[in-house]
TrEMBL record:
It comes from Paenibacillus aquistagni. InterPro entries: GAP1-M (IPR045401), GAP1-N2 (IPR045402). This is Glycosyltransferase. Coiled coil: none annotated. Residues 160-263 form the GTPase-associated protein 1 middle domain. Residues 798-816 have a biased composition (Polar residues).
Length: 974
């Protein structure tokens, strides 16, 4: 195919002749053609449309009048862009006069002129064609400047449709089918209820009405055929008018196509919802107003220039554009019914293509809609949030007008204000969320609000809600910094500072670790970035000073010293400058000033590597005791050798005389040390501390406290070989104390022998003498090995030895059983509890069974223990005795200190022995009595020990159980 840039219209004629251009014998062939047509194009593109099938209705009757046979006008567009307009007609006789034939005449409009169909479709529909051609005149046809047109009357659309029995519904269906067929989806077959000889003429007139109702994009694509004997799928033909009766109901070839059998009153595959088809409604409404239709189609065509091809032929595009066009004309009906979809469609079309004159019309329309909604809001109407969200999205356009941008802020301001006036807080929050979702809109909106004095009504409620919803105190700081950086107006806004301060304090109060969080916030505020002018202004602002002051006040006023951790305490910044801090604290009441003094003392106590007693010099006695209790709690968290010097400060009762409560100190060690070795390490450390040892000798009160510690808490200390060799036997200073404690913890006989060495030597001598005599008697045979005179055994009786395991006696200790609920593995569970009522504290403390045996014997059952709860009973006099003992120790310590150098050679053990006479006596009595006896240092009991089993068991009264090699009888079931 030879390409041609000619704008001439070419011609081709085809019929049955004695010869043709492409054949030398008689038959159907092209008989004449313009010189601009390529032969291949003629054969491949034009010849397939050179055809005609006579109507069955006329051939059946043998009709010879050719004028009664309908002409077949057809239009199709080639792949190269050219348009082919032609007509095929029936001929009663061919050149021989013996048979019928047909004649086809084609006009080929080049691609350069194919756009003429948009506005010249009437001329094309009423083109004038040749009815015959004499090949003897030659085979070359002229090239034409224009298509010849025959006169035609003006079509009256409504009259024609009425005549063809096409109502509004069928017309809209037909128009819908054509728009879809033009895109190549389906074919449209129409059977008009008109005489066969009028079919093509009516089809051409109907096509004229349809073309004038179609947008330009469809006009450029649509191909048609005004007559065909049967429905036939031809490439490039979208709508085909066929003979009546040819659209058979069961024809599978056309069952999926659009069928308009108007003769039979049957339409197929066009059941569409016509109530929401704005373009079809517009076309029907202006069917007789050709100028209005053309104005709309020009408008739509201009707006779609530069858009993607599929949008130009999408029916939805023309639905939307018809609405925009009607809005321009002042008809807001469809907009009021479907505001959000219309606005979204408008935004979508504005975003396509470049800013042409037509696009400017869309931007102007958008501004008019803004004005309309703003007026509605001023009248009290609250817009839907999705609608405002659509107006907000205008800012995402690549090209926006100043008018469109300027009117957004008033629209949002009045909408939020109106929602507040109507107390619709939920809606106002949704409006705020839309504003905040676009950074540029948010910046301009809040700058406008702050600059115009609208902060109280439009800024503070929003910020208050933000502060309220912030989960953590750190989020409050982030919000404040964000506002202060983006809108520097808030830095001078007193109400904002007050809100931020209050919100920050409220969030700190709810933190699990408020002191830790407060310290982190102070560090954050002190290290604000300073890269930009806004950041520098924020960091140096009164707002930041206010927050820093608020956090410091919180740390001073609301930090709980009873719960504060060591790490949190040491991170409090103002404690690093104690003088300035104490000076600042004087502006508060006495209670706060006292707390400040304690905080400074605690900081110095735990910050220094080797703190001295002077850290307490500013504290009163009451403050000292409170501070020491707090310090003990902190020490309890990490008690180790490195903390011993710090630990001693917690037990000074008089900082001037450096009086230490040794008994309380050792009791604390017993309760808090993670193991005994830590306690022994403390003993070892104390040997080099002047508060415990003077002139290489332990303080008498300290020695007495050590003895009391071993007897009360650690009676097995000297039985552990490793501890004994590493700590006790190697000590030169405390060695005598350890030796005395070891003796005091031994059996009564050993203590007696240790105190009276002469008695020991006499006893040993007696044993040697008696032993020697017995051995001599045995050697002579006078006595047997058992020390008795040996006798002959009875006849028939030999040596017999019987091993009998002694029966375990049943203890008199009362035991009750019951059921309680207790957490087990994270869930509440019912378990059995056994309560033992011991007569003495010692017996209760020594009762630590590993399991419980139910019904001991052959059918015994072992029950697992969940946990043991220690003795609940306490000696009411024990505390008083200890205080009295501590006081006496302190008195003795003072007395020993006064005597000082005069008694350097005195034996500390003798002193401690005197100081602890009652204790020794108590120990002797305790060792000499059986289990369950009460010592003077114990209460009258009973002392409860509760054993919680792992499961629930039915243990009735009278049941015998065994625990720790003792049997008990269940007294009662509680």
């Amino acid at each position: 195919m030879r390409p041609s840039s000619s704008t001439w219209i070419e011609q081709q004629m085809y019929t049955r002749e004695r010869r043709g251009i492409f054949r030398t014998n008689e038959g159907y062939d092209t008989v004449a053609v313009s010189k601009g047509l390529d032969p291949n194009m003629v054969k491949k593109v034009l010849h397939p449309f050179c055809t005609y099938d006579a109507p069955a209705e006329l051939t059946a009757s043998g009709e010879k009048d050719g004028s009664l046979y309908p002409e077949s006008i057809h239009l199709y567009h080639t792949e190269q862009g050219a348009s082919v307009l032609g007509r095929s007609i029936y001929q009663a006789q061919d050149f021989t006069g013996l048979r019928s034939a047909f004649f086809t005449h084609h006009y080929v409009i080049p691609a350069e002129r194919s756009e003429e169909v948009v506005n010249g479709f009437r001329q094309w529909l009423h083109a004038d064609y040749a009815a015959h051609y004499d090949i003897e005149e030659g085979t070359e046809l002229a090239q034409l400047r224009d298509i010849p047109v025959k006169p035609a009357a003006q079509v009256q659309p409504l009259e024609l449709l009425s005549e063809l029995k096409i109502d509004e519904r069928i017309f809209k269906q037909l128009l819908f089918a054509l728009t879809n067929a033009a895109t190549g989806r389906k074919k449209v077959y129409v059977a008009l209820d008109v005489p066969i000889d009028k079919l093509s003429a009516y089809a051409a007139r109907l096509l004229e009405v349809l073309f004038q109702s179609l947008p330009y994009a469809y006009r450029r694509m649509l191909g048609f055929m005004t007559y065909s004997k049967e429905p036939e799928s031809k490439k490039g033909i979208h709508v085909m008018f066929v003979e009546k009766g040819s659209l058979r109901a069961n024809d599978r070839n056309i069952e999926r196509e659009y069928i308009f059998d108007l003769a039979a009153g049957r339409m197929m595959n066009v059941d569409i919802e016509l109530e929401h088809q704005p373009y079809l409604e517009f076309a029907w409404k202006h069917l007789n107003d050709i100028d209005a239709l053309e104005a709309f189609y020009r408008y739509a065509d201009q707006l779609l220039i530069g858009t993607e091809q599929h949008k130009q032929i999408a029916l939805i595009s023309y639905h939307e554009l018809s609405i925009f066009y009607q809005l321009e004309q002042g008809d807001y009906t469809l907009y009021e019914e479907h505001k959000q979809p219309v606005l979204r469609a408008l935004l979508g079309h504005m975003a396509q293509g470049e800013m042409t004159t037509a696009k400017q019309r869309l931007h102007a329309l958008f501004a008019r809609l803004e004005e309309l909604e703003l007026e509605n809001v001023k009248q009290g109407t609250l817009p839907e949030p999705d609608l405002l969200d659509g107006f907000k999205d205008y800012l995402y356009q690549e090209q926006v007008t100043e008018r469109g941008k300027a009117q957004l802020i008033p629209l949002f301001i009045h909408s939020i204000h109106q929602a507040a006036v109507q107390s619709n807080h939920a809606l106002s929050l949704r409006y705020y969320a839309i504003v905040a979702s676009h950074p540029e809109l948010s910046r301009v909106f809040f700058d406008t609000v702050l600059n115009r004095g609208l902060a109280q009504s439009l800024f503070e409620p929003y910020v208050a809600k933000q502060f309220q919803e912030a989960p953590r105190a750190g989020d409050i700081v982030d919000l404040v910094c964000d506002w202060g950086t983006r809108h520097t107006q808030v830095l001078k806004l007193a109400s904002f500072r007050a809100m931020a301060q209050e919100a920050l304090i409220q969030k700190l109060r709810k933190e699990n670790e408020p002191v830790k969080i407060a310290n982190a916030i102070l560090e954050q505020l002190h290290r604000l970035p300073r890269g930009r002018d806004e950041e520098i202004e924020l960091a140096d602002s009164e707002l930041m000073d206010t927050l820093i002051y608020a956090v410091n006040c919180f740390l001073l006023l609301e930090s709980d010293l009873k719960r504060i951790s060591k790490q949190e305490l040491l991170q409090i910044g103002f404690l690093q400058q104690p003088k300035q801090f104490i000076q600042w604290a004087r502006r508060f009441d006495d209670h706060v000033q006292s707390k400040a003094e304690k905080m400074v003392a605690l900081y110095d106590w735990f910050h220094a590597s080797a703190p001295e007693v002077f850290v307490f010099e500013r504290l009163s006695q009451e403050e000292l005791e409170e501070t020491q209790q707090i310090g003990l709690r902190l020490l309890q968290q990490e008690l180790s050798e490195g903390q011993f010097a710090r630990l001693v400060l917690a037990f000074y009762r008089d900082t001037e005389s450096r009086q230490v409560e040794y008994g309380a100190l050792l009791q604390f060690l017993h309760q808090s040390a993670k193991n005994k070795e830590v306690i022994y390490q403390f003993f070892q450390w104390s040997e080099d501390h002047h508060d415990f040892v003077r002139s290489k000798k332990p303080s008498p009160a300290y020695a007495a406290a050590l003895l009391n510690y071993f007897k009360k808490y650690d009676r097995e200390a000297f039985k552990h070989r490793t501890y004994r060799k590493h700590y006790f036997e190697t000590s030169s200073v405390l060695g005598p104390v350890y030796q005395k404690a070891k003796v005091e913890l031994s059996s009564p006989l050993m203590r007696l022998l240790a105190r009276n060495k002469r008695a020991l030597f006499s006893l040993v001598a007696i044993i040697i003498v008696v032993g020697g005599a017995l051995l001599a008697l045995q050697a002579t045979g006078i006595m047997g090995a058992d020390g008795k005179k040996e006798a002959n055994p009875p006849i028939g009786q030999g040596d017999q030895t019987t091993n009998v395991k002694p029966e375990i006696p049943v203890s008199s200790t009362p035991v009750t059983t019951g059921v309680i609920r207790t957490p087990v593995d994270g869930a509440e569970k019912e378990v059995t509890v056994l309560t033992f009522f011991f007569a003495s504290q010692t017996e209760a403390d020594g009762f630590t069974p590993e399991s419980i045996i139910l019904d001991p014997g052959s059918a015994q059952q072992t029950l697992a223990i969940l946990k043991r709860e220690p003795s609940l009973e306490q000696n009411p006099l024990e505390g008083a005795d200890e205080q009295q003992g501590d006081a006496s120790e302190a008195g003795r310590q003072g007395k020993a200190s006064d005597q000082g150098d005069q008694n350097e050679e005195a034996d500390p053990l003798n002193s401690s022995e005197q100081a602890d006479t009652s204790a020794d006596s108590d120990t002797d009595k305790q060792q000499s009595q059986t289990d369950g006896a009460k010592t003077p240092s114990e209460s009258t009991g009973p002392f409860e020990v509760r054993i919680l089993l792992t499961d629930k068991h039915d243990i009735k009264a009278g049941t015998v159980i065994q625990a720790q090699e003792k049997k008990f009888t269940i007294k009662d079931q509680v």
